[in-house]
Amino acid sequence: MTPDVLDRAHVSNWLEGYRRAWIERNAADAAELFTEDAVYREQAFQAPFVGREAIRRYWATVTATQSEIELRYGPLIVGDAGAAVEWWVNLRNSGAPVTLAGEFFLLFAPGGQCRELREYWALTEGRVEPPAWWGGRDGKSPR
């Protein structure tokens, strides 16, 4: 990855690090994916988490009640300094099965860490598999 061009393989590796951190509920590893001054927008109408330490604290809190986490990605779109990807998660939250479907819009710093994450997601109770039209059902690549 050069300072001006984002490499698709780098984004895929970054996403794998994010997936691994979520599955392992490892807030420290998740925080290391971000720049020191990163902005993490988990909800569009709420204040973002700003800075690596705030992101680490958010992650430690939000994943504390989660278990049996299965995260899959849909097709990846990569631009000059940013990327977008859909994701699908089945997990247990406080023991109850839930499904989340969402999207990341990611902006990267020249060093390869994420400088801004914008996330949009929806949640439903129970375990729901992705619909037939959803890409990336295997979690690795689009269908």
List keywords for this structure.
Nuclear Transport Factor 2, Chain: A, 6-stranded mixed beta sheet, 3 helices, 143 residues, 42% strand, globular, alpha+beta
In summary, what is this structure?
With 143 residues, the protein is of the alpha+beta class.
The CATH first-level class comes to: Alpha Beta
Counting copies of identical and different chains, the oligomeric state is single chain
Strand content: 35-45%
Name of the CATH architecture: Roll
Rg over C-alpha atoms, rounded to the nearest angstrom: 15 Å
Spatial order of strands in the largest sheet = 2-1-6-5-4-3
Order of helices and strands: HHEEHEEEE
Total number of β-strand segments? 6
Integer count of domains: 1
Structural class: alpha+beta
Instruction: Provide a count of the helices.
Output: 3
End-to-end Cα distance, whole Å, is: 26 Å
Q: Describe the sheet with the most strands.
A: 6 strands, mixed
The coarse overall form would be globular
Mean pLDDT: 91
Report the uncertain regions: none
At the third CATH level, what is the topology name?
Nuclear Transport Factor 2, Chain: A
Helix content: 10-25%
Outline the secondary-structure elements.
Layout: H1 8-23, H2 27-32, E1 34-41, E2 49-50, H3 52-62, E3 66-78, E4 82-93, E5 96-108, E6 114-125
Parallel strand pairs: 1-6
Antiparallel strand pairs: 1-2, 3-4, 4-5, 5-6
